[in-house]
Structures are given as structure tokens and as C-alpha cells.
Amino acid sequence: MSTDQRPHDPQCPFCRIVAGEIPADVVAQDDQAIAFRDLDPQAPLHVLVVPRAHYPDVATLAVGDPEALVAVARLAATVAADENGGQFRLVFNSGAQAQQSVFHVHGHVLGGRDLTWPPG
């Protein structure tokens, strides 16, 4: 999908980060996804990976642009390899009840300590 055809929401803070309108501590990016540090980290490694296109949740992204979902997972693995020896948990919260607070799909790359199960 070309950049001018990607879904975009001008009110979405993650779309605004992708566009460079809001600063973020970007740790990795490619032409389909961008990874930046979470402002409220829950682990020593806590990076958000978002597709450059706006989709509200992971299920919508999987249907609308499965290649972008693969790109998000690939970039998450790259971040974990660079920052934590490749060990990580990748979490997608989908919906308010699941604690999703920004409705632009994003994966949380968590690591840097022992992660317990169940997660909460």
C-alpha cells in the first residue's frame, strides 16, 4: 500500500508520531512500522510498535493489511534482538476492557526482567 493510500486519523496521537508531528524516542523503523519507547514503561524494555497505517486494533489490521501486521511483529523482534538478546513478550490490547487506551493498533514489546504468568 502506498503512503498516500494508508489509512490515517489526524486526531490519533500515534498517527501524529508517525507523521513526525509529535516527538517520540524512536528506536527502530521501516517503511511499514515504527517503534518508540513507551512514556510509562512497565518493564525495563517497553517499546511500542505501530504500523504506519491507522487501524484501531490488531484484528482489524490482520484483515485490512496482513503484511503490516507481519512488519509490526518483525520490527518487534528486531527491537528485542537489539535491546534484550531477542527475549521479549509482545502484547496487543484490543478494546477498552483489555486496557487499550490509544485506538491505533500497537504492540507492546516487553522484556528486560522475568515476566510472570498469568499477566494480570
Automatic annotation (TrEMBL):
Sequence motif Histidine triad motif, residues: 104-108
Domain of life according to the entry: Bacteria
Domain HIT, first and last residues per copy: 13-120
InterPro entries: Histidine_triad_HIT, HIT-like, HIT-like_sf
Protein name in UniProt: HIT domain-containing protein
